[in-house]
Amino acid sequence: MTKEISADQLMQRIAEEYEDLSKQLKVIAKYVEEHRQTLVLERITDIAQACEVQPSAIVRFAQRFGFSGFSDMQTVFRDAFAPAGGNVNNYQKRIRSVIATQDTPLSNTQVTQNFIAACQQGLDELSQALDPAAIDKAVELLVKADNIYVVAVRRMFPIASYISYALQHTAKRVHLVSGLGGMYHDQIRSIRENDLMIAISFQPYGKETRYCARVAGQNKAKQLVITDSQLSPLARNADAVLTVKEGTAFSFRSLTSTISLCQALFIALSYRLELVIEETRDAGAYDD
After folding, report:
1. What GO molecular function terms would the record report (predicted)?
2. CB atoms inside a 10 Å sphere around CB 6
């Protein structure tokens, strides 16, 4: 390469140019995003097989972003991610290996321990991959918002419900877009330029959340997206993106890392607002 580039800068460029890539290169881009912490350990033939493309396609992908070839691109990820990524990935493999090699059924306690270990692995990876600039931007958006709309569906809905509850402890006007009665349109239509929408969505990215994001964009509202990839369709028009890779066990993804991140955002916002949670005004009981 004629110009040095960091791994974060490369991933940002991939995200910006993702829609212009061919179908094959999009598959490779997603693989790079999902495996960037272990990319330095993989051979080009292994990646090609996982993406169901020829090795030459991997080379074309690297050249598309200004590298001489795959090895040249690999160097970027070696410098940025190899030290932190190796142990996380090995630990994850050990968890899965234990499950796969059991001669007898696991006890309830063993199942619980394995799932907790997967959650711990997800939290470790979240901590290692935190982007300080993205966190700062997210908190700044929360501070400046007149109204905050929170939307998530299905598996992510409990997270939206929690962060809406937490934000109610501030003076912010908070709206949980629940879609009750199919009223997504009615609940999101009043979002405006000085408002903020928090969208929480992971693959396969709920169509309802994408609809709300489109309305927010049309109404010039700010968007804070919590998702699993910079290549998420929600990330492309967001003002701030926070990515989370949840731990997985027994084919179930945990919610631990996502809810921890949301709690941390609320605490950071409270710190900025000098809010003492325990001293927020109580209007009294329902029957007072």
Report:
1. carbohydrate derivative binding; DNA binding; DNA-binding transcription factor activity
2. 11
